[in-house]
Amino acid sequence: MLGKKCLEKIAQGFKEWEEITNQQTAKNPEQKSEFETLSELTVKRLYTPVDIDHIDYTEQIGFPGQYPFTRGVQNTMYRGRFWTMRQYAGFGSAEDTNQRFRYLLQQGQTGLSVAFDLPTQIGYDSDHPLALGEVGKVGVAIDSVRDMEVLFSAIPLDHVSTSMTINSPAAILTAMYLALAERDGISFVKLRGTIQNDVLKEYIARGTYIFPPKPAMRITTDILAYCAKNMPQWNSISISGYHMREAGCTAAQEVAFTLADGITYVEAARNAGLEIDDFAPRLSFFFSAHQDFLEEVAKYRAARRLWARIMREKFKAKNPRSWMLRYHVQTAGCSLTAQQPLLNILRTGFEAFSAVLGGCQSLHTNSYDEALALPTEQAAQIALRTQQIIAHETGVTETIDPLAGSYYIEDLTNRIESEAEQYINKVEEMGGVIRAIESGYIQGEISHSAYEYQKKVEAKERIVVGVNKFQIEESSPSGLLKIDMSVGDCQGEKLKKLRSERNSQAVISSLDQLKKAAQKDENLMPLILDAVRAEATLGEICDALREVFGEYIGSVSY
Amino acid sequence: MGERQIIRVLLAKPGLDGHDRGAKVIARALRDAGMEVIYTGLRQTPEQIAIAVEQEDVDALMLSILSGAHNNIFPRIMEELKNRGINDILVMAGGIIPQEDIPGLKSLGIKEVFGPGTELKRIVKFIKDHFTAGEKS
């Protein structure tokens, strides 16, 4: 805090400067009448010490690795260790994806991230009628532990960290990973990784729900409890804002709805009898890195501070690790254009840069061809190199949270935190996230923001280079990744073989036990693990749970 | 469309794809342009879409898909419509559909495919022009 005289001098200087500048703009107007962030927060012409003088440095900004973590969750941040370079990958068969995994590891990525196809994500085997045409298209097809074995072939599970983007069937994929570790004689305590396991955002924005919210939350807390007890190095959930942002919400909404989901999971886990400090240190998060560079940096800092306050003040967690918001970032897929696709390399680069300056723990960078298809090897390589250049060549990792103290950044951090808090309070007043989903409130806010953005683009108030300005005549793109329809047939053959070779009695018995437990309060993980060991398929296990829990029907509002 | 002035549109999400930002934005734009819009929600089978077209008595059907399953699911949708004797509605598609697949989809009776970056006003105009001209499929 500056002295009173100093502040007055600056305020006076600012007033005089503004008068002169306004005289200039009376003759030569600025480019727009209103300047705002991508999320419609007003941006002033200039920020000065006066804007942030009220901030108490030690209370609100603080030190890295210490409450409220505004400046980062580790004391040394990237000086100690770079963020994990973790490229989301998966397509076709387990063999295809295993090859891409090994390529990316060879090229220097430091963590694995598994993309599953839609049938797998929604709990259908590849030969299910609803899987027709969808097998292997948006990720790898995994029907059983056999596919899982091929997926991780020649990849030692005690030497990698694996993130799996799977939600409704998260328990089953976790069990498959554990079954593999078992076969390889690797203790569960050695396994490092993350399971996304965030059903709330599936109802809100992503769509791969299976069961209704109540039983889905039960499965979630079963996973949190099981991992807390058996997998100390495993992040049992990745509470996600990325997908809601992709669906069109603003930066403040992204923080708000994500943390509101986080609050819901914490409450559910506590209601299920878990001690907060037993599971909270292994909660993790997942945010987007969007195009408004400075807003994104401020967003991450705001999210860290707000979550720390919620965990310490609202939930009274005692372990400092329970207060830490550790998160993965993906650069914004919705910012990629089909037109002049090489420009996406720049977009991804700027977005990744904001994620690093914001202090993320893990990062995925999109490939330039991803507006149209899954990435080719060459495009995936450039995406990875983008991170490596930021880490090794830009110098921003030499010091921690270098943008701290910027008058604009600190002011924006505060504003995003404040707006997010208002949304969180509104959701609380409605009775919590699940009620807010049932009433369509959260979905409505998101699609409203999406529509407002689109109208701005149509009116050319928002420029998208190559799309609504600087367009060129272009030929059809070539060389895009194509997934063969034969993947579905191959998986069908594998399933036939599996069913003929396994012990059907063991499968039936394990599914029976699972259904019984599902009707009671028992933790389902050990029973799912039994079913997986017996080589029950993903679809069979999910169908057993569908029998008990029923299925969720999505909404028709827009 | 008959004597009715207001164009009724069914917006459908076939298959397992959960990306509905585009569909919802278009729904709002068509609504603001004076059309009546019904959104099916996610996970629609070809049969469910055809039933909805029939029950809602719509003038146009828009299919949104980003999962790459369009070559499999669109022919099945057009088949279901045909089986119900629905031959005169305007069918359009959007999402992530490779350019090389478009001629095949058009030969099924899908009148236009709107890819990423398409202006909302172009979509609105396309639909309005179709019904002003009094075209049948």
Quickly list its features.
heterodimer; A: 558 residues; alpha/beta; TIM Barrel; 9-stranded parallel β-sheet; 9 strands; B: 137 residues; Rossmann fold; 41% helix
Summarize the structure.
The complex is a heterodimer of chains A (558) and B (137). Chain A is of the alpha/beta class and 558 residues long.
| Rounded Rg of chain B | 14 Å
The strand order across the widest sheet of chain B is 2-1-3-4-5
Task: Kindly give the count of domains of chain B.
Answer: 1
Q: Count all strands of chain B and give the number.
A: 5
The structure class of chain A reads alpha/beta
Largest sheet of chain A: 9 strands, parallel
What CATH calls the topology of chain B is Rossmann fold
What share of the residues of chain A does DSSP label as strand, in percent? 5-15%
Spatial order of the strands forming the largest sheet of chain A? 5-4-3-2-1-9-8-7-6
CATH architecture heading of chain B = 3-Layer(aba) Sandwich
| Uncertain stretches of chain B | none
Q: Roughly what fraction of the amino acids of chain B lie in strands?
A: 15-25%
Q: Which fold name fills CATH's third level, the topology of the largest domain in chain A? A: TIM Barrel
- The H-level CATH homologous superfamily of chain B, spelled out, is Cobalamin-binding domain
CATH homologous superfamily placement of the largest domain in chain A:
Methylmalonyl-CoA mutase
Number of domains of chain A: 2
Distance between the termini of chain A: 48 Å
